[in-house]
Amino acid sequence: MFARGLRPLSAVTVALLVGAFALVFFYAPNDADQGFIQKIFYLHVPLAIVALCGFLAGGWFGVRYLRTRDRAHDLRAYVAIHLSLILAVAALVTGSIWAKAAWGHWWVWDEPTLVSFLIVFLLYACYQPLRFSIEDPERQARTASVFAIVAGAFVPLNFTAVRLAESFSHPRVLSATGGSMPGDMRITFLVALAAMACLFMTLWKYELTSKQASMQLRALKRRLAADDDPWVPARRSAAPQQL
Amino acid sequence: MRRAVSALVRKDLRVELRTGEAVPAMLLFSISTFVLFHFALDRRSVDGQLAAGVLWVTLLFAAVLAMGRLFVAEREQGGFDGFLMAPVDRTALLVAKAAVLLCFLVAVELAAVPAFAILLLGPSPWAVLPQLCAVLALADVGVAVVGTLVGALGIQTRTRELIVPILALPLMIPVAIAAARATAPLLVEAGAGGLPGRWLAVLALYDLVFGLLAYAVFDYLLDD
Lengths: 243, 224
Prior knowledge:
The structure holds two protein chains of two kinds.
Chain A: H1 6-27, H2 41-68, H3 71-103, H4 112-124, H5 127-132, H6 137-165, H7 183-224
Chain B: H1 2-19, H2 22-41, H3 48-69, H4 72-76, H5 79-85, H6 91-119, H7 129-154, H8 160-171, H9 173-183, H10 197-221
Helix pairs in contact in B: 1-6, 2-3, 2-6, 3-6, 3-7, 3-8, 3-9, 6-7, 7-8, 7-9, 7-10, 9-10
């Protein structure tokens, strides 16, 4: 169900990632102020953008689940948020490294984008504990979907509030005027963003396929087990256990 | 709808009056926190942004206490089943619980804000009382709506007392930002400044967004 088109997608992802890093190292010029360290930007910003989109996608699948009550949507939401959390950690770490190199501090509070991102990350970090502490699968899926929708709506609100509170100092990469990037930097950035988006899609589909396969395996094992066999339940997990 | 809401609100307020569970605890918590801030900051009095921050952190943390308790009686004593069997709109429960939480917050603030003024606040808040009340009211509505949502999410879990605070605090950060920034100029030692309109607008936007959101998703949190 989830594995369709996985092979070409994987190939495209590998090609784009290799291409993006080749462009980053051999094509994009060094930044005049910051030098080589500025190249972390081609990793940090796509990570952050893709993670935010993944969070919002989680909210979208939450809506779909509540509308249709199809467990597959809950699984999609779970995997999207789970992957986005991992990307978000990477974005925070790379952001921190960049801040240390560029401004001399690991963390800069007058960076509205970074601060908002941290708040959003803290909120979504509750997603796994929330799921984990609900045993009934139907209620778990329902509650998690409501959470995903609320958190998804919180993202733009939070960015607005923090942006108002802090001064403007983060480089606006995707502003209406296209920021202040020269053309070769912008092409590199767009390729890196596309590569990261493809990487997310690929990992998302692999994870969905793997989860579905292990669910099928568990169902088969259960059918094979004789009635007097003690059924060994799966290790407790926050992930959806059945479709 | 209106009758159902008023019945639910009266029930909860009566339970609160008879047991005194939430409001006294929130009030004690607030006053203890003011004392803690006095020692932690080593200040006899605070003003400006610091005063606003102390006040709002205390009030928001106190609100988290009430959020965790909001649906406990419904879950433990079958109130959800009774409500779901009654032929009323499910939104009535959301409106009623948000109203109850709002009442708790107002009751706590009626005592906690004067206590703050006596214990910690440098400048007198009398002159800016109407503006302060406006900020408190706008922020309380938002906290009440978010708190009802978080309480209803938390009551579904086995670890309510852990989930409610970690969910509520990030969700309330915009309230903390806007309310503290709006309150800060009111509490300046040198004389109160004007009320910054854009922070009130942020609070109003927050109330509106979460009000609509809670209205849209609350039904799904009740068991079918």
